[in-house]
Amino acid sequence: MIPVRPRARRFQILWDEEIERVGPERASLGRVVWKFQRTRVLMDVVANILCIIMAALGPTVLIHQILQHISSISSGHIGISILLCLALFATEFTKVLFWALAWAINYRTAIRLKVALSTLIFENLLSFKTLTHISAGEVLNVLSSDSYSLFEAALFCPLPATIPILMVVCAVYAFFILGSTALVGICVYLIFIPIQMFMAKLNSAFRRSAISVTDKRVQTMNEFLTCIKLIKMYAWEKSFINTIHDIRKREKKLLEKAGYVQSGNSALAPIVSTIAIVSTFTCHIFLKRKLTAPVAFSVIAMFNVMKFSIAILPFSVKAVAEASVSLRRMKV
């Protein structure tokens, strides 16, 4: 408990300041969460921007230069190509380092937030003489499911902040190296982003419904265990078992729907990249424009870099939707 108490105290101070400023009814727990982790989120954004710079510089610019020099037979050009290959390795290695740094920051931020909120809620519950206003099942859900939702939000939500920068950089570079036909692939990505956001919101709707059903199931199980003697005295076991089975069946259906939507949404990332590449090159060749190997491989590398924007977005939207519900429950 000693290492986590300063974090909970800092969060408690921020929450008290929020209540004094706007009152308990208008106080926003989300605003306090943002103040609590603001510096780390900004550090994560900086690390992601540096990762994008390395990703754009390596697989796109350097590959284009390497293929151009390799096409020449002279020994001088071969030496330059070797140096460019070493530079490509350096940029890729640096990109991985910045990417690992961003994830490390996010994980530590998520752990700090989860520990601070869980400790604060637990200490507030200990201050009550009785827990007549909340059941044991609801307490377990808040300390497990809701705190984990905030953990995921702190882990995934900072990552999409750099998506606009990534899209702009890739669009400008693709237009510069390939021409106007590169906008076809960019448009494919822009079309699929709203589709993914819709599917992520649909997934969040299913999970929000499942959370309410889970609360009901946990509450019913708590009543079952509390009144077990009375239930066995009147032989109500089958009735309670059937009730719990029905609730669990509804919960399972909602979670299955959410899982199917999430799986389909995650599968769009490699599909979108392939569709963008094929449609771009098809349009380019159809217009009878010249397409060389350096240009083709550079564009493919650039579209693969853009795949990150499609891959991470569903998890971020889902985490935001679930965290908003959890924050409302935690505020109570």
TrEMBL record:
TM annotation in the entry: 45-66, 78-105, 182-200, 267-287, 299-321
- Give GO terms: molecular function aspect only: ATP binding
Q: Which domain of life is it from?
A: Eukaryota
Q: Which UniProt keywords apply?
A: ATP-binding, Membrane, Nucleotide-binding, Transmembrane, Transmembrane helix, Transport
Domain ABC transmembrane type-1 stretches: 45-322
InterPro entries on file: ABC1_TM_dom, ABC1_TM_sf, ABC_transporter_C-like
Q: What is this protein called?
A: ATP-binding cassette sub-family C member 12
Organism of this sequence: Apodemus speciosus
